[in-house]
Amino acid sequence: MPRARRSTPASRAASTVVAALTLGVAALALAQDQRAAQERAAVLQEQAAKQAELQAFQARRAAAMQAPAQAPALDPNSFYGKESTEGVYVRDSALALEKFALAQKMERLKEWNKSADLYQEILEKYADRVVPSQIDKDNKIYQYTSVTKGVQEQLARWPQEGRDVYRARYEAAAQQMVDNAGRNDLYTLNQAFSKYFITDAAKQAGLRLIELNTERGEFLAAAEKGDRLLERHPTVEAERPALLFRTALAYHLAGEQFKSEAGVQITHVPYKAAATARSDLIGGHIDMMFDALPASLELVRGNKVRAIATTAKVRSSVLPDVPTVAETLPGFESTIFIGLMAPKGTPPAILDKLHDAINKVLSTPESQEFWRKQGAQPMVTTRDEYAKFLTNDIAVLARIVKQSGAKAD
Length: 409
What we know:
Blueprint: H1 9-66, H2 93-108, H3 112-125, E1 130-135, E2 141-146, H4 147-156, H5 160-180, H6 186-195, H7 200-215, H8 219-232, H9 240-262, H10 274-282, H11 293-301, H12 348-362, H13 365-373, H14 383-404
Antiparallel strand pairs: 1-2
Helix pairs in contact: 2-3, 3-4, 5-6, 5-7, 6-7, 7-8, 7-9, 8-9, 9-14
C-alpha cells in the first residue's frame, strides 16, 4: 500500500530553501535579461548617433563639393579695434595700416586707379608688415594677418569693373616678371604671385609654384599656394578641377610622409579645399590635419585650433612653445625651403662668390628678423651641405611615395 509521506520541520526547511533558491535564480535571470536589454539599447543608441554624425558629415562634404569654401576674410572694422593686452609690434605697421585704410576708402568711392596704386605701394614697401584682421565682441583685436594676404583678399573681392582697371595697369608687368623667371626660379614666381595676385600672370605663377614645390617634396608649400588660388583668385574656375587634385595630392603626401616615418595608421579624408577641412577641424568633425603654417597661424593665435607639433627639425620662432614632431619621432622633418641654384656648367669661382654673398646677407640681423616673422629659419650652409640636403630629400620622398602607393593619373 502506498505510504503517506510525513512532513517534518527539516523537510519543510529544505523545501523553503529550494523555493528561495528557485526564486533567486529567477530574479537573477530577470536582472541579467534586463541588463542585456539595456546594453543592446545602448549599443543601438550609439550606432544611431554615429550614423547620424556620419550623415551630417556627408551632407557637409556634399555641400562643400557644390560650392568652393571661402576662408575668413579680413574684417575692415578690425582696423578700429582696440589693441589687446599682448600687443603686436612690427616696424612701420602703423604706416601700412594708414595706407590700407586709405586704399579701402578709394575702393568704396570706386576710385579704382587710386586704390590700386595704394595697394601696390603697400606691397612694395610694407610686404612683411601685419594689420588687424578680426575683432571680438568687445571690439578688441584678437587676430592679425600679413599685409600681403590682406591686400590679396581685398583685391579678390573687387567687382569686374575694378579688376579690369587693375589688370589694365599691372597685367603686363606681372606677365613680364613671369616670362623672365627661369624654370625653377621660385623667388621670382613667388614675387609675381604675391605682388599681382588677381592677374592671370600671377595665376600662372601660382600653378607653376604648385608643380615645382610638389616635385621638390615641399608638399605644404604646394598646398598653401593651391589653397590661396582656390579660395581667392577670381578667374580660377577653368583650372579648378586640376587645381583641386594637385592641392589634395600635396596634403595627402604630407600626411603619408608622417604615417610612413611614424609607423601609424591615419584615415585620409579627402577635401575639396583646405578651408573646408579647417572648418571641420574647428567643429570637431575631424581629429587632425597637416596644414601650412602661414595658413593656420592665425587660427592657432585666435585659439580656434591647437597646434600639436611643427614639422621642422627645430621649433618655430613664431610658435616657440609648440614641440616638433622630431622631439617624439627623431629624424622626422617636412618643411618648406627655398634655395638658389645656378645653370649647369657655371664656373666654381662664380658659384663660390654667389654663395658667400648670399650667406653674408642671410646672416645679417635684418635678414634673420625678416625671416623670423615669416616663421622661417635661414639655412646658412656650404654648397656641399646643400647638395647633400637635396640628395637626401629626394631619397626620402621617393621612399614615401613608394610606400604610400601614390601614383600620378
